[in-house]
Amino acid sequence: MKKFVTVFIMAGLLVVLSACQGTGADGQVVLKLAENQAEDYPTTIGDKAFAKEVEEKTNGRIKVEVHAGGELGDEKSVIEQVQLGSIEMARVNAMPLSEYSKEIGVLNMPYLFPDKETMWKALNGSVGRELLKTLEKDKLIGLTYYDSGQRGFYNSKRPIREPKDLKGLKIRTQQSKIAIDTVNSLGASATPMAYEEVYSAIQNGVIDGAENNYPSYFSTGHYEVAKYYTTNGHSTTPEVLLISKSAWEKLSPEDQKILREAARNSTDVQREAWAELVQKSKEKVEKSGNKVVEIKDFKPWREAVQPVYDKYGKQFQKWINKFEQVK
After folding, report:
1. How many C-beta atoms surround the C-beta of residue 215 within 10 A?
2. Within 10 A of 288 (CB to CB), how many other CB atoms are there?
3. What is the spatial order of strands in the sheet that 189-192 belongs to?
4. What pTM does this model have?
5. Which of these CATH numbers, 3.40.190.170, 3.40.50.20, 3.40.1010.10, 1.10.3300.10, describes 151-236+285-324?
6. From the UniProt record, which GO molecular function terms apply (predicted)?
7. Each residue's pLDDT tens digit in the chain (327 positions)?
């Protein structure tokens, strides 16, 4: 009897260990990927393209399960779970990620790149890969970057054509020191606030506006209460596709290569989906009669955020220099 109980317990432990490692009964490796956006959002489209290529190139040995809509938690909790290995993968923005890995915070700096072409050349090149490698000490493996667009200002009061037009406006920002200092340096009064409170806060005059990309401006309905949008592009903080270091180290070098290649290829799919969404959002905003100010001369905007570089530049100088060398 005692022997039977021992065998039963051992069998149970093996099942638990197998589940913890994300391995199916047939030996298939299952990687859960946390995504907080909807099923049809560009980042989710990128996730699914990645998952499909991995499954195809491993003949089904590795299956990536994409859990969209925040099913596995918000970005903060998901990052922590990936570090612990309780979730194998996640797609998160570099803004909250910088709370766990300081060096990646350089991507939050305003006007870090002269243009979008240079930005993607840098991120997809050796410097971008080197920056992702810094995540390893925080038990994370960065596989690739996704597009999160360019953030612009929108408000209910007036068109914003240059930084001085922001003076006196209360603008909602993310809970980030760099984001707050950036908005303040441009002349507005930064007001950190939960994202879901923004619509009613603008509607009721608690704040005058916020800052975000075109798709978010439209999809949230913020364009209904803030009729003025400016494409000043002060922030281009990208998304990052991550895998837990513990899950990564269980993969063979061959499978690691497959995942890296699939991740890089999925960036192209995601960026194309993002560009389409931006265009659709822009058309709908303009059709609604909103006033859109397209910024052509970014020089005064770059000059206005110099205090942010004076304050944070030293800690990120190594990476700022590396990015500046990319032509």
Report:
1. 19
2. 11
3. 189-192, 170-173, 209-212, 151-155, 228-235, 291-293
4. 0.90
5. 3.40.190.170
6. carbohydrate binding
7. 444 444 444 444 333 333 444 666 578 999 999 999 999 999 999 999 999 999 999 999 999 999 999 999 999 999 999 999 999 999 999 999 999 999 999 999 999 999 999 999 999 999 999 999 999 999 999 999 999 999 999 999 999 999 999 999 999 999 899 999 999 999 999 999 989 999 999 999 999 999 999 999 999 999 999 999 999 999 999 999 999 999 999 999 999 999 999 999 999 999 999 999 999 999 999 999 999 999 999 999 999 999 999 999 999 999 999 999 998
May I ask the CATH class of domain 2-147+238-278?
A: alpha beta
Q: How far apart are CA 109 and CA 38, in angstroms?
A: 27
Residue 171 to residue 169: CA distance in whole angstroms: 6
- Helix spans in the chain (H): 2-20, 42-57, 75-84, 94-97, 116-123, 126-133, 177-185, 198-203, 214-219, 245-249, 253-287, 299-304, 306-324
**Topology match between the domains 2-147+238-278 and 151-236+285-324:** yes
